[in-house]
Amino acid sequence: MLTSLDGYDTYSSNRIKIYNAGDLPTDFKLVMPRATFSGLTKIALDDNQLTFASSKVTDSNDPYICIDTKANVIYGTTINSKLSMDGFTGRIYDKYIKSGDYFKIPVYTGSNPKYITTTGGGAMNIYYDYLYF
Predict the structure, then answer these.
(1) In a domain, 18, yes or no
(2) Distances (CA, A) of 34 to 75, 124, 129
(3) What total number of domains does the chain contain?
C-alpha cells in the first residue's frame, strides 16, 4: 500500500487519480452537479469507457447526478456524498448513455498511477472502497 494517498481521488484537469489496493476490482460512484453531468461526454479508464449524448439535462432540477457502477444506473440525488442513494430523487438518467458499459476500478498497486479521465463536464467527487476476501 502507499504510505500517502495525497493527490488521489481528487478531480483535477479532467481526470481523477485512483488507487485500488484491495483484492478485487471495485465499483465506484461519481457524484457531480447537474450542470457538470450536462457537459460530460465521456468517462474512461484504460480500454473501458462510457459515453454520453451531448445534450443538456433540462428535464429536471436535481442538484446532483450520481453515476453508480455497482447498481449500473445514473440517478438524481439531493446530496453530494457516498450515501447519495439517501437523497435519491426518483429520476433516472440512463437515457443519456450513448455507448459503452459501466466498469470497475481494477486492482492496482503499481508505482505508475491510474486515472479515470473525463471529457467535458467539470469537477466531480469519486467514492469507492477497497474489497478484501
Answers:
(1) yes
(2) 10, 10, 24
(3) 1
In a domain, 114, yes or no: yes
Tell me which H or E stretch contains 16: strand 15-18
CA atoms of 77 and 65, how far apart (whole Å): 6
Is pTM beyond 0.85 here?
yes
Domain ranges, residue 78: 11-127
Summarize pLDDT for 94-126 with one digit per residue, the tens. Answer: 999 999 999 999 998 777 889 999 999 899 999
Whole-angstrom Cα Rg for the chain = 14
- Is residue 83 over pLDDT 80? no
Q: Which amino acid makes up residue 3?
A: T
Owner of C-alpha cell 453530494? 80
pLDDT at 86: 82
